[in-house]
Amino acid sequence: MNTSGGVGGTGCGCGGASGPVTHCGRCPAAATQSVPPPGRTALTVARSAHPVALDRMRLRLSAADLPALSSLTARHTDVPLDPALALLDGWACVGHVLGFYTDRLVNEHYLRTCRQHRSAVELSRLVGYTPRPGVAADVHLAFTLADVDPEAVLEVPAGTRAYSQPGPGETMQAFETGEALTGRPRWNVLRPRLTAPQRVTPDVAELHLRGTATGLVKGSPLVVRIDDTCHLRTVAAVEAVRAASPATEDRTRVVLEESATVTQRRVPTTLSAAVLQALLKEPAVFAAAREELELDPSAILGKDSYAGYGMLESAYPALRGSLAAALGGTVGDDPPAAVSVHAMRVRTALHGHSASLLPWVFDPERQVVSQYREWDVDGTGVADAEPAVGGDGGVAADGAPVPLLSGAVVPLDPEEIALDAVYDTVLPGSFVVILPPPGEAASGDGNGDTSLPGVQTYEVREVRTESRVAFNLPVRVTVLTLDRAWRESVSTHGPARRTVVLAHSEPLDLADVPEEAAVSGAQMELDGYHPGLLPGRRLVVTGERTDLGPEDGDPGAGVTGVSGTEVVMVSAVEHRVAEDVAGQATQDTVHTVLTFAGTGLAYRYRRQSVQVLGNVVPATHGESRAEALGGGDASRRLQTFPLAHAPLTHVSAPSSSGVRSTLEVRVQDLRWQEAPNAAAVLPGERRYVTRTDEGGTAVTFGLGARLPTGQNDVRALYRTGLGAAGNVRAGQISVLASRPTGVTGVTNPAPAAGGADPDELEAIRQRAATGLIALDRLVSAVDLEDFARAFAGIGKARIDPSHGPASAYTLTVAGVDDAPLTGSSVLADLRRALARLGGLEDPPEGGPLRTRGAPEATVTIAVRTALLLAMRARIRLAPDHLWETVQPRLREALFAVFGFAAREIGQVPYPGEAVAVLQGVRGVAWVDLLAFGTIDPGTPDAPNLPADVAAEALALLDVGPAGAVGLPAPPSVDASQIAYLSDAPATLLLEQVPEEVRP
Q1: No. of helices (H) and no. of strands (E), the chain
Q2: 657 phi and psi, to 5 degrees?
Q3: d(CA 913, CA 925)
Q4: Cα distance between residue 94 and residue 98, in whole Å
Q5: Which of 43, 428, 917, 952 has a Cα at 20 to 30 A from 269?
Q6: Residue 727 pLDDT more than 50?
Q7: How far is CA 701 from the centre of its chain?
Q8: HSE-CB for 175 with a 13 A CA cutoff
């Protein structure tokens, strides 16, 4: 049967027209187009599907250039019934299969179009790039030691393993310590100093007394004695304070003379910008090794340091068990002032305070006493003459003195004082306070007599009880002998009648006052004496933050309940007593004062909540393995051994790759070194290379020296485990694999950080070109950017001139999958690697890296600033499609193009990209992009408030159903920002346009 037809004998009707649109797909022209347009992510190889190939071969049976086939006719048009057509059908099937695999092979030969991870790995190795193997997470582990003996020195060996408690959907992760730990049970939890001795002055405003049963009330008199001087104070208010922690005790707060102002604490209803800025502040994480700590000799060898005592302990073994205890019990060199407080329990008056006045002039006519006079102070009264009967005006005439009372009274000693009754509680050695009448101290009584002195405090030397008849009042009274005269030798009883005596002084114990100041900065005084703490020790400081407000002018509007955790290193240790403002040592014992390296603590903490974990050691993700790889064979040149376990752990390091392998290989107990690649191995060198793929890691020897012949003499010690799975939460590591002697528990106070997975396909595509760059020699700014991009743990990097001097640059980086870089050693290792390989100087005080030859040329390393991409679009679906199935594909397609992994720092997103992505999803008829832009959450130094961020999003997305004319304008993105689509709520709004109802 002749099936030819069409123009040109092709039988397809298109005449063999070329071009991507004009041919019909059945003619030979369709099989000759193999050059795809540029910029494609997939190559279209010329191949024909089974039905197209079969039709083309059937057309060729009647082609003019094959005349021998023109006489053939088909017995039947169905392929299975005709052997010739069945043969063509079989070859069409073969062509279909071969065409498919040829298409895949061609695509897998190019880095941009390959889809298999192995293809990208092998292609990148052709240009000298080795995909990053991933990096293990770092963490600091705090061990709890058994407190049977608090001062026992216990060892936790390096390599101690602990496991995390997995959460839902997680697996248990192993962590091992990177160095040995020498600890003491007393260092499990250290606390800052919570109390301090009171600094009592004559005008002190309040006192703190031990206990709550002081018996003091408002108006109670107190005697404050400082050295030999006593001061009378009056209680204005009394407050019982219960112990806030086991480290403190119940006490009574006594306010003197006037009430203190109480400021109520207000809880804010919204977060302020200052609070957000404080929340975004990075904690202090001293990631440097102990060996890198710069020690100050003047600090570690100061007079208050432990260095001198440690030297004596080393020289005299007999002091090792007693010198530390003796130092802990010492006080300051200068004796402090003797301070005591006494409550005056008895308030009384002098004997005779209620006596009637002494009759002085008698009127005989009226038979009454017309004039009276005051008694002498000792209860005696003497007239100048006998009272005259009559007389001139009834006034006594001059004459010899005669007693007015029957029976004379012996005058009192000026150092004695008689009380108005018997008081058995007044004892020798106590204090007495004599209060003169108000307004009469140091003044006369009108007759020239000197009144009582001002308020005075006396010490009681002797106490006796006797009967007295002075003032014509026979009574038994208590007579006190004071340490000095309390009155003049001549004085009337008038002022004394109104004199008040305070007696029965009871000593009150002074309590240490609570330290209310927040814990912050580079120094911390501990709650006691802690010998053995030395420079280089790591500590973890945790507590409730108090730097989240208050704002200026609002002292009560702080945010509470937010905890912080920081890792610090001790740079100096002092053991000293506290000093007052004037530098005078107070009555105190020796306390330990720690100085932290660097800038110290980044946050402020409420003192009562602070805990200092002292048994801390750095650890990394991974589990140690010891394995015998096999025996060497000197006759084999490239002998290769696979490791039995995977993945091989790599830890962060300041190298050109950013990582260091944990693999250690020994051959006949002699260690061989790893080479970065085969070209780096010189003849005869004992080095090996490794190759890592999906199946694990293989170790190859013989590129330099060959392995000596032996049996099981090739041994490997390595660790397995790495990646983002090691970024566990704080407190999640709590299971000890083995318990060294004295170890009872373990935890991670801060979350693990820095873990990154091995390079995926897209990461290899982006970084393969760095294999052609000499990353071990950094010259230009572009070299720094390429170096940072290839550094393990860094996902994105960009360098641009800063806004300051022309020679200042800013290197902006972001973690892999936007993982936080704070709390890990990645940034610190990147900084050290740039300084070492780029000829830069890393100043000890921090700040930008400086060029050694030109200090004005600086490089600042900064973490990216995020811009949240937001868009709103109306979607009309093609007929017969469901919104419930199309919408997830729309979101997936948008995140594939606008997600964090697909965007770069400084890259501008365009609305046309969004339209193209949405329009390319199967089931979409048309797209109306209503809104497209970015939302700025601010920077860590100046964050925007949640209400402001929400208002900005509302202004962007609330455009109404009609939207704007044309596409929205693309947003602006700075060189330090990255704009990407996140999973934040309400940033991606997709709406379905209902189908038109057809009749």
Answers
A1: 14, 49
A2: -90, -15
A3: 17
A4: 6
A5: 952
A6: yes
A7: 46
A8: 33
